[in-house]
Design goal:
mainly alpha; two-stranded antiparallel sheet; globular
Length: 402
């Protein structure tokens, strides 16, 4: 199997993807940080939960109090309570060398770093599907600055999932393209360790992604290689159990985890405006979580409904979907859009809990970014998004084979 290679100084593209993300996010965050005397302040739970959680956990770890937290409610399991928020986050652990008073000042710089990392990891996934790496850099930036990312500045710990997810897909692609061992297990571990809640959705997406590409014959795999891939997935999950087991023991006591959708509620949302809100989030920048302007009665505050791509919105997606050529992305995108509009399918990304959230849309925005940059590159090279690549299919949407 031949592999396409970037031009000389390929590492410069990695730096470019990372530094562009850092630079653009700094342009947005720095004025607010300067205005508020070195703090990045938002509103609501960001100020009264996210920042205090960071500082409290920082202080607990530096003092060695890792068992029971007496500063959480009337007392709580420290690990089980904070794995969702920050304990598995490498960005949180960067605060540990700093004194407690510095932690609130670090929230803004950490968000800037997360945007830069998301741009980089988006690039790493997308570079396999383009001939010109500049398009992968652009795609990484579209992913990093999507409506989902901007909306979830409020929930700053969601960005860990945004950062690691492209690497998980890259590892799966790498296994299927080169049979490279061990990388997928490492990324499964990293994904689950960073945030168990988002890992559930990532597993659902990876299953859809993997079997769809097998069904459309874009991928082929033998029984032995499939068994080894499954073993890597299990091994990665087992390695994450140092945080996962105490978290599960804590979470299963919550009565909200056993609340599946049922009846007509599994097929139709009970609020008509929610359909408009879902549709609107693809075409417009998101409202802030507590202030939905287009659909004030959609009952979807805090649901993380954001999937808009800067500059291009849905144009690249439409260009890809209307093209005559066949490709796996043309099959995957309609499936994901359908899942967004059907309650029980949407809830599959959170273990079929009926509480409405769209916190898997960062996965959708990555696929939308892929569709956008491949449409742009095809247009630039051929003058038409209808043209096929040198392999008979759009070359960017399959592995080059020898």
């Amino acid at each position: 199997m031949t592999q396409l290679r970037f031009p000389e100084r390929a590492s410069s593209y990695y730096w470019r993807a990372f530094l562009y993300g850092i630079g653009i996010s700094l342009l947005f965050f720095l004025p607010f940080i300067l205005w508020d005397d070195g703090y990045f302040l938002f509103y609501g739970d960001f100020n009264v939960q996210q920042v205090p959680f960071y500082q409290m956990c920082h202080d607990a770890i530096r003092s060695g109090n890792l068992g029971w937290s007496w500063t959480t409610d009337l007392g709580a399991n420290f690990i089980g309570s904070y794995t969702f928020y920050l304990l598995g986050s490498p960005f949180f652990w960067l605060t540990i060398p700093f004194p407690s008073a510095a932690v609130p000042h670090l929230m803004g710089p950490l968000l800037v770093l997360k945007f830069g990392c998301a741009s980089l990891t988006g690039f790493i996934y997308l570079k396999r599907y383009v001939r010109t790496p500049d398009y992968a850099v652009l795609g990484g930036m579209l992913y990093a600055f999507s409506g989902f990312s901007v909306y979830n500045i409020f929930f700053n710990h969601f960005h860990e999932a945004i950062v690691v997810f492209p690497l998980l897909l890259w590892a799966l692609d790498e296994y299927m393209a080169t049979k490279r061992r061990g990388v997928f297990a490492l990324l499964v571990f990293a994904s689950c360790f960073m945030n168990y809640y988002f890992f559930v959705g990532q597993v659902v997406f990876c299953v859809i992604y993997f079997f769809l590409r097998l069904i459309v014959k874009d991928w082929r795999i033998g029984l032995r290689d499939f068994a080894l891939l499954a073993c890597e997935a299990v091994l990665g999950l087992l390695c994450s159990c140092v945080l996962l087991i105490p978290t599960v023991l804590c979470v299963v006591q919550n009565p909200r985890v056993d609340n599946p959708p049922n009846g007509w509620g599994a097929l139709l949302y009970g609020w008509n405006q929610r359909y408009v809100h879902i549709l609107e989030c693809f075409f417009f920048p998101p409202d802030i979580p507590a202030r939905p302007n287009f659909t004030p009665d959609s009952e979807s505050k805090w649901a993380s409904l954001g999937a808009w791509l800067p500059l291009f919105s849905m144009t690249g997606v439409f260009a890809t979907l209307q093209a005559r050529r066949k490709s796996w992305i043309k099959t995957l995108l309609p499936i994901l859009f359908l899942m967004a509009f059907v309650p029980i399918l949407n809830s599959s990304f959170q273990l079929f809990n009926s509480s409405y959230y769209a916190r898997w849309f960062y996965m959708l925005t990555l696929m939308m970014s892929l569709a956008t940059v491949t449409a742009l590159e095809t247009r630039a090279r051929t003058g038409s998004v209808q043209s096929n690549g040198p392999l008979g299919l759009p070359w960017a949407l399959r592995f080059p084979s020898g």
